[in-house]
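Supplementary Methods. Inverse-folding protocol.

Structures were first reduced to a discrete structure-token string of length 214. This string, shown here, constituted the complete conditioning input.
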């Protein structure tokens, strides 16, 4: 056992949330009479929290009042529909069960709002994930290290005892800022070439690959 704890990103790493994010973004844009976005555009926009997702989705130079209205429309829709299409990626349930059986401590750290993280954790990770950290007041979002530091403290482990698993450039930055090595997964929202360009050196082609790397 190389590590005692594993810190996972959520969207694009454990859960495929893209369709629900895409639908909520376009619901919000329609409600504000703004042009809609494609699935690939929304895929590129995720990673820095839902405010940044909406900010990237509206047209450039959208005034702050309309941006706020669009964000509120997104949030109210996503709260209701965040699990319409969201599911675990194939092999993730097996991976988490196997890691839990081996005694690893595990946390989810996400830029999703804490309420959304709690809802998904309750639906998919009950009894397996020890800590679930989402966007909350007073804790800077990833790639700042604060969320990871909070998770490590709650898990009771040191940075040297943990490894990070994510699917994006934000995750690579977060791991680096936290002093953790990072496994980049290849089933998520970013391509291998994109991840390599952002410094990725360890890759998991499928969830079971993580088992041999930790």
């Amino acid at each position: 056992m190389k590590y005692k704890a594993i810190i996972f990103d959520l969207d694009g790493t454990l859960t495929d949330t893209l369709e629900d994010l895409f639908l909520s973004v376009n619901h919000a844009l329609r409600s504000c009479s703004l042009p809609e976005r494609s699935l690939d555009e929304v895929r590129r926009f995720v990673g820095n929290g839902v405010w940044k997702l909406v900010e990237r989705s509206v047209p450039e130079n959208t005034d702050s009042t309309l941006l706020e209205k669009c964000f509120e429309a997104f949030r109210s829709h996503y709260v209701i529909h965040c699990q319409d299409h969201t599911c675990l990626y194939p092999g993730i349930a097996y991976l988490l069960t196997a890691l839990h059986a081996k005694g690893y401590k595990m946390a989810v750290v996400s830029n999703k709002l804490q309420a959304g993280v709690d809802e998904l954790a309750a639906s998919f990770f009950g009894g397996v994930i020890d800590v679930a950290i989402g966007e909350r007041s007073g804790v800077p979002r990833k790639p700042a290290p604060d969320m990871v530091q909070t998770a490590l403290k709650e898990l009771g482990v040191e940075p040297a005892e943990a490894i990070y698993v994510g699917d994006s450039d934000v995750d690579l930055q977060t791991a680096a800022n936290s002093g953790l090595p990072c496994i980049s997964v290849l089933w998520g929202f970013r391509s291998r070439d994109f991840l390599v360009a952002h410094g990725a050196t360890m890759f998991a082609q499928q969830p079971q690959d993580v088992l041999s790397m930790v």
